Amino acid sequence: MPKSKKLVWFRRDLRSFDNAALGAALDESGAQAWCAFVFDTGILAGLPRDDRRVHFIHASLAALDADLRRMGGGLIVLHGDPRDEIPRLAARLGVHTVYTNRDYEPQAIARDAGVAARLEADGRRLASFKDQVIFERGEVLTQGGTPFSVFTPYKNAWLKRLAAEPQALAPHDVESRAGALAPPPAGTALPGLADIGFIAPPAPVEPAGMSGAAALFDHFLDRIGGYGGTRDFPALDATSHLSVHLRFGTTSIRHLVRTAQQVGAHGAAGATVWLSELIWRDFYAMILAQNPHVATQAFRPAFDGVAWEQGPQADEDFAAWCAGRTGYPLVDAAMAQLNQTGFMHNRLRMLTASFLTKDLGIDWRRGERYFALKLNDYELASNNGGWQWAASTGCDAQPWFRIFNPLTQSRKFDPDGAFIRRWLPQLAALGAREIHAPWLADPALLQAQGVQLGRDYPWPLVDHEQARKRTLARFEAIRTER
Ligand code: FAD
């Protein structure tokens, strides 16, 4: 089996530039490399037929295939279980090594171990590369050599390591080595969406693919300077919206960090704040890799003892939260944005997660699962980190006694109610004074504006002050037990 024959297996790295595994596979004279993607039937089986992410992946694969073809290659697209498909394809093509970029989620690690074992049994091997983060797993440690669990010292150590090792941002060259790309064999072209059992969603994620990510980033660079002051206001177009592209690798984290550093060095203060957000992403990936138990349990085991609400009332409250019927307009507007588009602004992810866990007293894992189902940018590490932060069960989390007041959050971050009006048209006529808490408004005034509580919009599900006391007691109970 000639070592020069290679297969590059794409997963969450759907781009043909600055791609570590692809660059490495092409980096040998006389190499011949095929590129492949597998629609994993095990994952697809659990998704709705109009899942936005499948549509996004499909559109991004079409763009990737076109670019690989421009360079003389193309994409082989299969549909099945990667544990079977990848070893079978490797055997069919007679390749020695399968190149892939590392994925740090527990299920992906198990899948890759399965693929590696099958390949090895056949005399082949799986070679994996760091691509989706700047520093992975054990690369940024405390002086004592242990993993960090607090963000700020992690960030300082991360920045220090990058200063000492700027080559961590060096792009992986593909274009100049493209002569090694091999065209796909007949009958392996990208199937239509319908051929894998899916349909286009009513509101697709746009723009998709590498050019979509590049266009979003260009647009964001015009506004990045103000990011520090505007990023918390969901009614503004102030954040990059690149999370779905980072999730599926249609952009390169190295490119984003390099650009943020350059723009920051030229005086755009917001770029430094934005860079911190990218470091949060590495931080949570590291937390998951070092502490895989967080996928199902609290980061701090003592918090597994929190007695979350259960039973029919909790089920009803949870259903109301999912549907955006809590009676708290900013919470409901945020859930409407999520349900209709698959995106939710970061401030509102914090608010809705806090509301579910601290106002309704419902287990963070239920909210985490709902977000996993709905978010276009869903990834286990950041979603879990965000939920455990809001629920006060995580590393470097919001202290359990500091509880967001949904009304204060609403007045502060959507002061004139523009975001609420956009997503809750039934409240659009309300003024800035009434819109945050319609139940406090004069009923006659509400009626004049065409809103009747209980008919057009729900009464609040809970009284925040009472809920806050219940939450404090819930956490106090485990504090005394510890
Ligand atoms: P920008 O403000 O432009 O930030 C740039 C990038 O930095 C983001 O695209 C993202 O990759 C990263 N980033 C920003 N904030 C965070 C953060 N707090 N943690 C980790 N990375 C961050 N992000 C996901 O990518 N997937 C998720 O499943 C996810 N679930 C979340 C759940 C909760 C409860 C919370 C509080 C946050 C979650 N986040 C998640 C983080 C954050 O809300 C999103 O990354 C961000 O809103 C995406 O919008 P943007 O691309 O415009 O972000």
UniProtKB/TrEMBL annotation:
Signal peptide: none annotated. Its cofactor is (6R)-5,10-methylene-5,6,7,8-tetrahydrofolate; FAD. It comes from the Bacteria. The keyword Flavoprotein applies. Keywords: Chromophore, FAD, Flavoprotein. PROSITE patterns: DNA_PHOTOLYASES_1_1, DNA_PHOTOLYASES_1_2, PHR_CRY_ALPHA_BETA. Coiled coil: none annotated. It holds the Pfam family FAD_binding_7. Residues 4-134 form the Photolyase/cryptochrome alpha/beta domain. Belongs to the DNA photolyase family. This is DNA photolyase family protein. It comes from Massilia terrae.
